[in-house]
Amino acid sequence: MNVIYNVLISNNLYVEVFRETMPLVISAALLYLHYKGRITALETILYAFAAEAYTMLIIGPTFTATFFVSIVFMVEQGHRLITGQLYVQRKYLLLLLLPALSNIAIFFIIQLYKDPFYYPEGKQTAFYLRPLYFYFKLYLPLFAIGAKLIQEKEQLSFEFFSEVMKRIARFSLMIVILQVSCQYAFRSEVLGEILGLQRRYLQEQASSMLSLRVQALFAEPKVFSAFLSLCVPLYIKDRQYWMAGVCVVMGVMTISQTFWINVFAAGITYLLTSVLSSTRLKILSTLGIIIGLFMIVAASKDYFIKMYAKNQHNTMYELIFKRSVYRYDNEVWQKDNVVLGMPLQRDMELPVVDFLRDQPYLLISGYGAGNSTFIPAQYFFGQMNYENRVNGVGGHNLNMRWFYILAEFGIFSLFIFFFTLTQTRQDITPFESSYLAFIWICFFFSQIDLFLIIIALLCTFGEEEESVTDYKMISYQ
What we know:
By secondary structure, the chain is mainly alpha-helical. 64% of the residues lie in helices and 1% in strands. Strands 1-2 form a two-stranded antiparallel sheet.
């Protein structure tokens, strides 16, 4: 645990104090502007999300500006619910109850059938209490964000969302320029950390000029790459091709495979499956095409690995293919990590897949919200976090969010989330319908829960909802 923690924190005490203070400063400033009526709830939460490079690691890596803003929104919406100003539709009430239903199912499975979990130092009580912590810290705040956005539905539109996204992208461009400058011109690690770069990526950069992974002020390069991929269709729609190209360049500089997959998904969604009238059919068709192409690549992986070996000193090969080759190459690891053609991360998705392969009945209920800590440690053998697993320290977060829902809540919950959050109003435009499909595809590969909620709301509530007086809560985690 100390090794991982030391990689995350700065060597400079003053820089670390600055970084850990910023979440409170940013969230306080945003909430002040919001409650003064200067920015909307949508702007507040998106600006906070775009500043997650700063975290209060002394408490935990998830204590960011987004966390503090969402907690304030949750308290506000809780007060409205208690005082009768907030009502919950039946279908969204079911989403609220899913974690409880999952944990009830897990309880009966453990008591009546089989207990496959590992409880370090007798932490069996924590197995039942951890889902409550997960529910109030992560799950419920997302419902509050949804309710808060709907209360400002007269200001909530796809066009407004698009403008906020592009505003953040332009600001991120300036931060990226500063990050690159401070590393290549000033060679200052301290300045890079102040500007949001994480120390572990700065250490990688020291060995190669092409290893600097820009992230603007986002939590990680892969999160920044996912955000940029969501901006590209918005810029193309408004014929702002120059900025679309800038987003692509910044996406390349994140050195994240997520960016290329998402951009490719956008092309399939808007060029091939956009003719389909059903949003759900667009999602399933696009995902089917992508998985099919992954399987073709996996079948030809030896050829691609040899091709990269011959061209590994080429700049474009280094930027685009290096991480993909690492994912597919099992010569060192001697363990197949390819599922449906997709190379899973060996320290994240693969241990969970192996666990569920051995315990397939858990696909019905999931292993319980936040209970990944109790997956037996042997599934993580050979990974940096193995000792933490043995000691029951830390949690486990899956970036592939469809799989995350399946693992945490079970297959029935995944179906409920999908069918609930793909309902759209009748007057939705073809571009918005395709964008919702695109978000769902990106959600398969990326941790973009907040964006899924926002787009689902935009595609559900419109002018025809103006006469509705009861506020509706919607969310996912």
